[in-house]
Request: fold
Amino acid sequence: MASARARAGPDEPEAAALARDARRERRRALVLAAPALLLVGAVALLPTGWLFWLSVIEGESFSAAHYLRLIQVESYRRIFWTTFEIAAVVTILAALLGYPLAYWLSRLPERWANVGLVLVLVPFWTSLLVRTYAWLVLLQRRGLVNRALLDLGLIEEPLRLVHNWTGTVIGMLHILLPFLVLPAYASLRAIDPAYLAAAASLGASPVRAFWTVFFPLSLPGLLAGCLLVFVLALGFYVTPAILGGGRVLMVAMKVQENAGLYLDWGAASALAVVLLLATLAMFALLARLVPLERLLVSRS
Amino acid sequence: MSAEPWIAPWRRAWLAALALLVLAFLVLPVFIVLPMSFSDSQYLEFPPRAWSLRWYEAYLGSADWMRATRISLLAALLTTVLATPLGLAAAYGLHRAGGRTARVLRAALVAPLVVPVIILAIGIFYLYVRLGLVNTMTGLVLAHTALALPFVVVLVDAGLRRIDLDQERVARSLGASPLRAFLTVVLPQLERSLAAAAVLAFVTSLDEVVVALFVSGGEMSTLTRRMFTGLRDQVDPTIAAISSLLIVISVGLLGGAQLLLPRR
Reply:
């Protein structure tokens, strides 16, 4: 800056004026963002920050009691385990179902692949509550799934598919699957088919070419999709609340119970802080792998 | 594509069958609700043995459901009207300003996207109890606007990146005021992104459940909140009719928005 000014020589007053102009212009531009920032800050960010404060206050003084309780009380340990287990199972199932779909779509001519992608997006466009309701109807005792299984003679008695762990996993899988398919598809589509042709011309069988060439190249997209499904599953509330029928207690539901029902803000906020930190850490990791923002708003 | 190694048709068929099954798993539950909502039976059969509009009549004839619908639509409309211009101004300002400060502020604006909604909900509840905003339309709309703003900012920002802002500078150098240059040069090129952003803001509010669970109760209950509490108790077939309407609205609006957005 200083050297630039020195070189400017006789033009200096003009250069300084220009720089001042540019700074004023930038400030003016930033002011345009103020109303939105104020609103998001006041309504979303500030209260969330507040939870950190509430989580370390017991009565009038600082205390780690709320966090210690999360470790010591058996029921909290069970909630953490249930949440982790459901998120992990949903992630594994999503990978097993989503990767083949993404692979198949990525090998289709572009026009057909786009049709397939729209079909992946349609459930995405539907409200989460509505999709959860659809599963409630399909999985109930006299629901379509049980009727079909009975008619096919696969079962004698209707299965208990809903108001339990199974129903929760099915519903969450349905809601989270597109979050795996979309990044996996993007990374598969980006692979040059010439690599496969090269592998084949060197004598690799299609299966071998897939596992040694294709799969490793698509791994980052698959991993990103898995991580995204897992982190989103950790915070789920609506689906387990409805499809779990009170038998499945996940972290977000306990947060709701503590804050909404018992007005126990210490317990609610300590749990919320743990959930938030886990979520943010994983999103930070994810942001290095995929264009995260685009994925999160991909309802459009 | 002829460069691809030859794969036995039965292998392809195996993969195609699995892929189509997964697609069916994704799509069918959404569309099976539609015919079911026209069923005459309490148990929502598929295919319905007798057709009727009774669940739609039950919905339209219920004062409670109608009030909840009005509240949801009003909240969604106000959220759209608030979030779209605020998001536009913010995205444009931050894009114009550039630099590190703008990047940090932008990150703050889109941060609600990565915070689990239950955490936002209890935070907002804690704040609203102190401000007396629980069970008010103002509170609901402000909360939904905060949730919708990140979507608007991301979409408008993507639109801005496609525009050559030198055009605006040219307009300014030819004597147009900043406002006029923005309105005549930038805004017309953002129309599609803005329309998509508005749609997304509307649907974000309309579909929102968790925050509404905390801040909109009793007389102020939104449609989704009433549905949620109804679902926990028993499977009320009226909800099938409402769900069908919501599917048509969301898929129609968001599908339309998809067509509006420029190809990525």
Q: What stands out?
A: Residues 1-6 of chain A have pLDDT under 50 and may be disordered. The CA atoms of residues 56 and 217 of chain A lie 45 Å apart. Chain A has two domains: 2-53, 65-296.
